[in-house]
Amino acid sequence: MIKPDGVQTRLIPEIINRFEEKHFSLKGMKLMSVERGLAEKHYEDLSGEHVFRRLVDYIVSSGPVVAMIWEGKNVVETVREMIGPTRPSDCEYATIRGEFGIDKIRNVIHGSDSVEIANKEIALWFPEGPVHWDKKINNYWNKFD
Ligand code: UDP
Ligand code: MG
C-alpha cells in the first residue's frame, strides 16, 4: 500500500516500475481514501502501541493511498527487502524507504510481513478479490511475422 506521502511525492510510477522490473505481476490496484475502520483493522497489531493513533490519523487524513496486489516468486520477502526497514534513516540507500522516506510515519509504503498476512490484507483491502486473468492472453503480445 503506497502511503499518502508516497502518492503526494509522485512515487506511484517509481514504485510500480521497481516491482515490474522484478517481474512481479500486478493483480489488483486502486487509489482510495481510507476509512478509519479499515486503517484500524489494518494496523490492529499495533493497537496497543503509542504510535497507533498517530498512524491511523495519518493514513485516514493525509490523502489517498494506492492499494496493490502483487504476485510472484518470493514476492512478499523480496518486496520487504526492496522497501527497507521501518525508519528511513536505518535503510540502505537503494531501498524505497532509504531513497524516498521522510520519517518513520511517512515512510512511503507498507508491505505485508508474510504470505499469511498478505492474504488477510488482500481480503481486507480487496473484498472483491484480485483480478484474475488467463496467462494465455499474454500470447496476444507475441509478435507474428
Ligand atoms: N510505526 C512507527 N513507529 C514505531 C512502529 C511503527 O511510526 O515504533 C509506524 C511506521 O509508519 C510503520 C507502521 O507503523 O511503517 C507499521 O509498523 P510495522 O512495525 O508493521 O512497520 P513496517 O512493517 O511498516 O516496517
Ligand atoms: Mg508491518
SSE arrangement:
Layout: H1 4-8, H2 12-21, E1 25-32, H3 36-42, H4 52-61, E2 65-71, H5 75-83, H6 96-100, H7 115-125
Antiparallel strand pairs: 1-2
The structure holds uridine-5'-diphosphate and magnesium ion.
Pfam families: NDK
GO biological process, one term: response to hydrogen peroxide
Keywords: ATP-binding, Kinase, Nucleotide-binding, Transferase
What bound compounds does this protein have? uridine-5'-diphosphate, magnesium ion
Number of DSSP strand runs: 2
CATH class: Alpha Beta
Largest sheet, described in full?
2 strands, antiparallel
Count of helical segments?
7
Radius of gyration: 16 Å
Going by CATH, the architecture would be: 2-Layer Sandwich
Describe this protein with a few key phrases.
145 residues; single chain; binds uridine-5'-diphosphate; 7 helices; Nucleoside diphosphate kinase; alpha+beta; Alpha-Beta Plaits; kinase
Write a brief caption for the model.
By secondary structure, the protein is an alpha+beta fold. The protein has seven helices and two strands; from the N terminus they run H-H-E-H-H-E-H-H-H. A two-stranded antiparallel ribbon has the order 1-2.
Could you please describe the fold and organization of this structure?
There is one protein chain. The protein is an alpha+beta fold. The chain has one domain: Alpha-Beta Plaits. It has 7 helices and 2 strands. It has a two-stranded antiparallel sheet with strand order 1-2. It starts with a helix and ends in a 20-residue tail after the last helix. The chain binds uridine-5'-diphosphate and magnesium ion (MG). Uridine-5'-diphosphate binds at residues 46, 51, 55, 86, 104-105, 107, 110.
